[in-house]
């Protein structure tokens, strides 16, 4: 009988021959070393380019909307409170606040850019999993890299040619077809589980990789915050260059960590045979994707063997939904909140503050986690509880912050917020089989993406 998993068990269970087509002993040491070095380079360059567009989008839309509404002399991303009199009388005679008009239009535009991508991104993430299991891990990296690169090209065209902002939806759609950052994170965690042994080494490597992609975004936010004072077009071109570098590294340097099949027939075959091979591959992949799609819901609907684990999965998912819906939509809401009177922070200052906050938070989280786990012997669920308490306190005090000192104090209070997701992932992974871990990660990343954007709409 398989031993019951406990909270001190490895984050990802050991693989068996039935779980993968290749055993750990068959993975060469050189392949492990190459993957350990090359994969962080792929992740770094991808997320550097990805977060560059994230940092550019909000202030760019703010300036475009202000110019369209002929309010740029009243408010801009760098001078949101440029004029003492912030009231404006519209044609109906009703007084409205200029900043609120601009911010509402910006939030609505961001929603329109993201809303059509929900279903596409969800399907793509669930499809990439079976593809990587059959045809190698590179496929899981190439899908999001290519999708995001097309988005970067669309951004460059819109910003450089001064096209309407809603055209950006084309880039967002292509990115969603590739799975976006969620597919990249899923592939990253999968490769980490391939090249590391079960236990603390694997758990620590997963935490470090997640921290690295977050800190990459923080570093990019700091640089882009200074750069957008000069131009929006140059950072977008830089983002596209990062996409090219990430694509080249993934194609030519990233090694395969599992045995793979050919995705298509060799080029030397005739056209009819090539077409038959592609069709056969499609028929093999689609049933696997459909089974994975059904498995996504079955994890939280039925559990014929262990009813107690089903209740725990549902409870963890409920906590995850409630925390993500608020905490991880905060950057977009906080940007508009800090630009609003009486705070009147420029976009550059907001991005710089957010970058420093993320850096300090992750340093504190890694230190506190080591202290809590090794000295106080706290379980993952107890660390997650600290994160939830930190998020509640942060939300309450942020709503009351009216000056700079209070905003800095709120940042200290929310230091443990970003520890919630890795801890909940660790806890939930104990209640599923290893073969369901990829599905579990996909569910959490999809929930993260959707709830964050929907919460911004309510603001």
Automatic annotation (TrEMBL):
Residue spans crossing the bilayer: 37-62, 111-129, 141-163, 169-192, 204-224, 236-254, 315-338, 350-371, 383-401, 407-434
Reactions it catalyzes: methotrexate(in) + H(+)(in) = methotrexate(out) + H(+)(out); (6S)-5-methyl-5,6,7,8-tetrahydrofolate(in) + H(+)(in) = (6S)-5-methyl-5,6,7,8-tetrahydrofolate(out) + H(+)(out); folate(in) + H(+)(in) = folate(out) + H(+)(out); pemetrexed(in) + H(+)(in) = pemetrexed(out) + H(+)(out)
Subcellular location: Apical cell membrane; Basolateral cell membrane; Cytoplasm; Endosome membrane
Keyword Glycoprotein on entry: yes
Location, primary (coarse class): membrane
Alphabetized UniProt keyword annotations: Cell membrane, Cytoplasm, Disulfide bond, Endosome, Folate-binding, Glycoprotein, Membrane, Symport, Transmembrane, Transmembrane helix, Transport
Pfam families: MFS_1
GO cellular component terms given for this protein: apical plasma membrane; basolateral plasma membrane; endosome membrane
Listed InterPro entries: MFS, MFS_trans_sf
Domain of life: Eukaryota
Source species: Candidula unifasciata
Membrane topology classification: Multi-pass membrane protein
Molecular function (Gene Ontology), one example: symporter activity
Annotated protein name in UniProt: Proton-coupled folate transporter
Highest classification ranks of the organism: Eukaryota, Metazoa, Spiralia, Lophotrochozoa, Mollusca
């Amino acid at each position: 009988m398989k031993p019951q998993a406990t909270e001190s068990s490895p984050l990802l269970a050991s693989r068996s021959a039935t779980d993968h087509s290749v055993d750990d002993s068959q993975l060469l040491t050189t392949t492990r070393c190459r993957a350990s070095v090359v994969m962080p380079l792929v992740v770094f360059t991808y997320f550097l380019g990805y977060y560059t567009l994230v940092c550019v989008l909000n202030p760019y839309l703010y300036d475009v909307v202000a110019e369209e509404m002929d309010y740029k002399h009243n408010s801009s991303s760098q001078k949101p409170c440029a004029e003492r009199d912030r009231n404006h009388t519209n044609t109906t005679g009703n007084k409205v606040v200029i900043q609120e008009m601009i911010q509402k239009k910006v939030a609505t535009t961001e929603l329109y850019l993201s809303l059509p991508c929900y279903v596409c991104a969800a399907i793509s993430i669930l499809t990439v999993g079976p593809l990587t299991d059959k045809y190698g891990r590179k496929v899981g990296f190439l899908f999001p890299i290519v999708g995001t690169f097309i988005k970067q090209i669309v951004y460059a065209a819109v910003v450089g040619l001064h096209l309407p902002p809603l055209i950006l939806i084309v880039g967002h759609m292509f990115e969603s077809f590739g799975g976006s950052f969620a597919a990249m994170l899923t592939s990253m965690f999968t490769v980490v589980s391939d090249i590391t042994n079960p236990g603390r080494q694997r758990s620590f490597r997963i935490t470090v990789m997640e921290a690295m992609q977050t800190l990459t975004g923080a570093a990019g936010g700091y640089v882009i915050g200074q750069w957008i004072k000069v131009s929006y077009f140059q950072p977008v071109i830089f983002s596209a260059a990062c996409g090219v570098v990430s694509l080249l590294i993934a194609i030519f340097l990233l090694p395969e960590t599992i045995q793979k099949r050919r995705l298509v027939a060799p080029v030397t075959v005739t056209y009819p045979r090539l077409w038959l091979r592609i069709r056969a591959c499609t028929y093999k992949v689609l049933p696997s994707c459909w089974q994975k799609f059904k498995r996504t819901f079955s994890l939280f609907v039925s559990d014929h063997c262990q009813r107690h684990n089903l209740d725990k999965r549902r409870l963890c998912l409920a906590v995850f939904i409630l925390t993500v819906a608020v905490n991880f939509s905060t950057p977009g809401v906080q940007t508009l909140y800090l630009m609003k009177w009486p705070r009147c922070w420029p976009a550059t200052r907001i991005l710089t503050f957010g970058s420093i906050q993320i850096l300090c938070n992750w340093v504190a989280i890694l230190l506190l986690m080591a202290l809590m786990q090794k000295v106080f012997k706290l379980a993952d669920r107890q660390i997650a509880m600290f994160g939830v308490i930190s998020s509640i306190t942060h939300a309450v005090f942020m709503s009351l912050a009216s000056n700079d000192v209070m905003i800095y104090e709120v940042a200290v209070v929310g230091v443990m917020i970003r520890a919630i997701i890795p801890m909940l992932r660790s806890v939930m992974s104990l209640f599923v089989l290893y073969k369901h871990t990829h599905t579990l990660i996909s569910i959490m990343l999809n929930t993260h993406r959707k709830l964050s954007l929907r919460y911004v709409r309510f603001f």
